[in-house]
User: Fold this.
Amino acid sequence: MRKDRSKEIAQLQEKVFGKGSPVRTYSVSDDDMMNEARKTETGFGQDLKQDLSQSSKDLDELAKTNQKINDRLNDQLAQLSQMTGLNQTGNEVDLNKLQQEIQHDFGVKVDLDDKGQLTEKRIVNLKSFDGTKEELEKSVIGQPALTTGLVTGFKRPYVIKNKGDKLLNSILVMGPGSTGKSYAQDLLSQILAKKGIIEDAQIEVIDLGKYSAIDDEKLFLQDLYASIAKKGQVIRFINAQYCAPSLLSEVAEFFTSGKLTLKKRYYLNQGQLVESNNALLTSSVDTIEANNHFLIFETRLSKEKLVDLLGAQFIESFDDVVSTKPFEIKDFKVLCEIEFNKLIEKCADDFALELSIDAKLKNQVIKNYIAKDGAENVLKVTDNLYKDLTQLKLASDEDFTQVSASYDSEIILKV
Assistant:
């Protein structure tokens, strides 16, 4: 039997709405409405359980998809190993094709290392470069345009994707010999590797002077492919003036587009690019791509001579053109002090030898400074000193620990 609550409800209504307000009686429909609310509440809980259950199923499905991707990777690598007779640690795997197949089958874009393993993509932004220019300028003396330009060139792809996915950036470095062009690049690469901006500090060097004849094309392509396959992300090209003109056009194509279309059929054998005459070859290499690299074209040529060699369009294709200048005498003095200190440290490390260098010797090096020779003015002196000290150490029967270097018409070493 339902309990009569009309009196209680009337008293509550009078307190809430005031005395004399219309009387609202409690009816069966009120009970029905409350029961419906309880049902709705129960239904909401069931819906929540269903949502959680569906989320769990989605996570399971995602895990299965990831497992399928890994299985596909392993299957492809195993098949390629059987086809080529190579193990799975080689660079012969067509990673681009593998990535495309995974994206087609699973709708997922993955990053793979040179062994076909999934990699975790580094997050690089402008903040990552904080302090880079200042650290570089501690060792690169008297070349502010060089340090600023190089850092800007390495920053560029993290601001504007102007070169496509394959080529991070191409940088033109010009200037007289022995003004720190290569040294600054090597040092910057070490700094960026420590910061995690690039994978490895090693810069691969393509000496274009090695390919002076048109018949050297195959060797050039093999060296280029091998440089890209290595862990480093920076490739430096030098001595373009000695390269065969027909190959320079391929160099220009590679720098401007980030890839080079091969004119002949090639395939991979033990990680090396090999020319093939087999028209039925199915696993041929058709292009060489910059593949997430920085390309640096370094030259001692003037802009005018470089235009004559490669054309104005080649130079105009660079967003970052960096130039060095001959050292001023004040900067050369600082450079001399740095190089002599390096020699002292090297002798201490290699020979446990305490080397002292007389002021007369330092002043003589500065006095003989020739602007066109740049850092070579002091590097030749320190290199020769090191060789002489090595010979002195080898020739002596006594175990000496101190040597002084002075100058009196010639360099004199005293134990």
